[in-house]
Design goal:
Helix content: over 70%
CATH architecture of the largest domain: Up-down Bundle
Number of domains: 2
Number of strands: 0
Largest sheet: none
CATH superfamily of the largest domain: MFS general substrate transporter like domains
Order of helices and strands: HHHHHHHHHHHHHHHHHHHHH
Strand content: under 5%
Shape: globular
Length: 539
């Protein structure tokens, strides 16, 4: 794709015009604080990661993959002991409990695009380390909230989510920048996705252990210590590209222009307000005026954001030249699939702990197949992406999302675990770990090197925001159909109402993926027909 070109040249544009000489092989543009947008070798076409010793490369990839692993651990650590935390804060309303999860996913999904731009401008490695440290700080404060109330806990969880919002796009952008397109890059992206289910299970496991053997805040305090350690390791093992050629120092105005803070503020405001309205409606209902006001304001900010990005900003957050119909199909499929996953995982955990009366540790044991199958699915996806169209991979993923949520939505309350609930944990990971690497790889290859942070942020924004928003939708449905939740049968009715909505979302995503596959073959056929017509006169 062509790079975004503004109407007036900036120092960054001048830098982009600088060509590497043969003697500068393997030199990128990032120095101590620069942008790693040209980390690949311009002469030999061999990426910097491939020049590292194997052990160093493994440590580098492993540290970057911790961005995904710890993000999902942050989700799982609260999901696994949701009732324990709720009891400590005196929370019983399902809507209030869901906020303990949604507050985290809300900021993860809302701040990713802006965080990706910071990485594009100031350096992916630097922002990744900052993200780990921010994540660590607010994880510590989340645990300390036990001495206060659930309001502080939700506030800390929301700010905790900004940490992975910084880590995810910049971690993926590092991988996208240091690996040249090919099977090796596809496998690395698949490994990044493979850590997601394992992270959620491990986070839930340790949270359950601390809740059973010590005190639940230690789940957050130990998590904070681990994140600080990862930041320290990352500062050593993540390679530093050579210093960039000196360039004029950017003015404050140029910095603000490059960051597109006005567009970012409008976009984040729209996402937060819409998400808040839907999730809060599950707590207080739609009778409160402020819920409607937040939703309306959020919707109004959406066209303002696009107006700023298209007509005002000279450096828009979203590279619109890369957003073709294929990218739109991919993001639509990801949104539907991961929305259904958010509903599946939240209500499955409640199903285990409330209706089947499992302990947090037993619930972890019940979902642990997700980690094993997820890793297998990711490796398989890395292989398939080199042999199949990404559209086929996406269709298989959406099929897994649909079948998995149907199984749990129709599972009887008194059925043994080895029935439908076990098999749904074997199927859902194929949806997660096939859709995420495929979507990330498609967008990474679709945009220029300097927009790798934005490409990574788009996929992660859709994934995490869809999870949070879908919980708001599902909570509203569950509260209206559970008839007050006075009996287990009523509670199950609410859960199934939420799951049925998830089936609809996954089914629509499956429909989109089928259209995506057909569109690819139709495009190929049209190109072949055009080529045949072009060759005919010459004969």
């Amino acid at each position: 794709m062509a790079d975004q070109v503004s109407s007036e040249p900036t120092p960054r544009d001048e830098e982009n015009d600088t060509k590497l000489q043969p003697s500068q092989t393997h030199q990128g543009r990032e120095g101590e604080d620069g942008n790693p947008s040209d980390l690949t070798n311009s002469i030999s076409n061999k990426s910097i990661a491939e020049t590292l010793p194997l052990g160093h490369e493994i440590l580098f990839v492993g540290t970057v993959c911790c961005a995904q692993f710890m993000t999902q651990s942050g989700l799982g650590q609260c999901l696994g002991i949701l009732r324990v935390i709720g009891d400590d804060f005196g929370l019983t309303n399902p809507g209030e409990l869901s906020w303990l999860i949604a507050a985290y996913s809300l900021t993860v999904g809302s701040f990713i695009i802006l965080a990706g731009r910071f990485g594009d401008l100031y350096g992916y490695k630097k922002m990744l380390i900052i993200g780990f440290l921010w994540f660590s700080l607010w994880s510590m404060i989340s645990g300390l909230a036990v001495y206060s109330n659930h309001v502080l806990f939700n506030f800390a969880r929301a700010l905790q989510g900004i940490g992975p919002a910084i880590c995810l796009p910049n971690g993926l952008a590092l991988l996208g920048s240091v690996y040249a397109p090919g099977p090796r890059k596809a496998m690395v992206f698949a490994l990044f996705g493979a850590t997601a289910p394992g992270g959620a299970v491990i986070g839930s496991l340790f949270a359950g252990l601390f809740a059973e053997l010590a005190w639940w805040p230690w789940a957050f305090w130990s998590f904070s210590i681990a994140l600080a350690g990862i930041a320290a390791i990352g500062s050593i093992v993540i390679p530093n590209p050579p210093r960039k050629i000196s360039k004029p120092k950017m003015s404050l105005r140029n910095h603000l222009t490059e960051l597109d803070l006005l567009g970012g503020l409008c976009g984040v405001t729209a996402l937060v307000l819409i998400n808040f309205a839907w999730n809060q409606a599950g707590v207080v209902g739609w009778s409160k005026a402020y819920v409607y006001v937040c939703l309306i304001l959020g919707i109004l900010f959406v066209p303002v954001f696009f107006f700023i990005e298209v007509r005002v900003s000279t450096a828009p957050l979203i590279p619109f030249e890369a957003l073709n119909s294929d990218v739109a199909f991919v993001l639509g499929c990801v949104a539907c699939g991961w929305s259904s996953f958010g509903i599946w995982v939240y209500y499955l955990w409640q199903f285990f702990e409330i209706l089947r009366e499992d302990s947090p540790l037993l619930a972890v044991a019940h979902v642990c197949p997700v980690a094993v199958i997820g890793a297998l699915a990711s490796v398989t996806t890395g292989i398939l992406l080199g042999r199949l169209r990404p559209a086929w991979v996406m269709m298989i993923a959406l099929t897994a999302f649909t079948v998995g949520i149907i199984l749990v939505a129709t599972a009887p309350m008194d059925q043994i675990y080895w029935g439908q609930t076990f098999f749904c944990t074997l199927i859902i990971p194929w949806g997660m770990d096939m859709s995420f690497p495929a979507a990330t790889l498609i967008l990474s290859n679709a945009v220029s090197k300097e927009h790798q942070g934005v490409a990574a942020s788009l996929v992660n924004t859709v994934v995490n925001y869809s999870i949070s928003l879908s919980l708001g939708f599902a909570g509203t449905i569950a509260s209206h159909v559970e008839r007050g939740g006075r009996t287990p049968a009523d509670v199950l009715l609410g859960y199934r109402g939420a799951w049925y909505m998830g089936i609809g979302l996954a089914g629509f995503g499956l429909f989109l993926s089928v259209v995506f596959v057909m569109k690819g073959y139709w495009s190929d056929r049209r190109v072949q027909s055009q080529s045949a017509r072009d060759e005919k006169p010459s004969r």
